[in-house]
Design brief:
This protein is an alpha+beta fold. Helix content is 14%, strand content 27%.
Length: 268
């Protein structure tokens, strides 16, 4: 986890190339315990982004020493959903510092959802973290934080839409229908230095980063391609095998025409 690395001036959220936003809420409170630094003191109110690679908190106050908090899934542990008899549901857990992440050690965190939705968000967060950890070689320390190289730019990020080429699990946005406000998400050209729910292309570790994902150019489909696309949209996720998605094979071949129709075509 890194401190004050996931925001831009003005309170915008900064994400990596190839990183997609899965869920978003602007009504969450976060508390930290186990750290003496002033940035961790007191409750923080702000926006929470669940992406394909991490959890991002953006503070609504620009006077706090903690302006943003980035929690890659591979830095989380002991995450639990709590449903107290009195009070709001919340998510709690522990997070480890990334080397070069502006803090050291480990901290406990507690996320309170004042408008509800903690269970939906927590289940999605646990599922995403489990999938990301399946793509990560277990090591003592998480991958180090590396500042983005080059400029960043405003990003038109689709909300609640599966990443290109991905047909596995995606959570419902029913409990969190609101997308991030316009001009509030920015992107760098640097890929994430840690795995996400898809992992890294050709490498299950974090040393080799995935290429940036861009929208494919428009294509003209023939009959076979159209059927293949239709089959891809019929894909489904098997909860017993979270690292895989089943795509039924397309029916490429049409039935032959009736005998009389074939004879007529032959005589023509």
């Amino acid at each position: 986890m890194s401190l004050n690395t996931a925001h831009v001036q003005g309170g915008g959220c900064l994400i990596h190339a190839g990183e997609c936003i899965i869920l978003f809420t602007d009504a969450v409170t976060i508390d930290f315990h186990g750290q003496d630094g002033r940035a961790f003191h007191g409750s923080k109110v702000g926006k929470l982004f669940l992406t394909t690679h991490r959890l991002i908190f953006i503070n609504k106050s620009d006077k706090d020493e903690l302006l943003s908090f980035s929690m890659p899934f591979v830095t989380l542990k002991d995450v639990e959903l709590e449903q107290p008899v009195f009070g709001s549901n919340y998510i709690k857990g522990k997070v480890r510092a990334q080397p070069n992440g502006n803090w050291v050690g480990e901290a406990k965190f507690k996320l309170i959802f004042k408008k509800g939705g903690a269970i939906d968000f927590g289940r999605a967060m646990l599922r995403a973290a489990s999938m990301a950890n399946n793509n990560y070689p277990q090591m003592d320390n998480p991958p180090p934080y590396a500042p983005p190289e080059g400029p960043y730019y405003m990003a038109d990020v689709p909300y609640g839409v599966p990443p290109p080429g991905y047909y596995g699990w995606m959570p419902s946005t029913e409990a969190f229908p609101d997308a991030p406000p316009p001009q509030s998400v920015y992107r760098t050209d640097m890929p994430p230095p840690y795995p996400g729910i898809i992992g890294f292309a050709g490498n299950p570790g974090y040393a080799s980063a995935p290429p940036a994902q861009t929208a494919p150019p428009p294509q003209l489909f023939n009959g076979q391609d159209a059927k293949a696309a239709e089959a891809a949209q019929s894909a489904y996720f098997d909860p017993n095998r979270p690292q895989m998605a089943y795509v039924p094979p397309p029916s490429y071949y049409e039935l032959p025409p009736p005998y009389k129709e074939a004879e007529n075509k032959k005589n023509d």
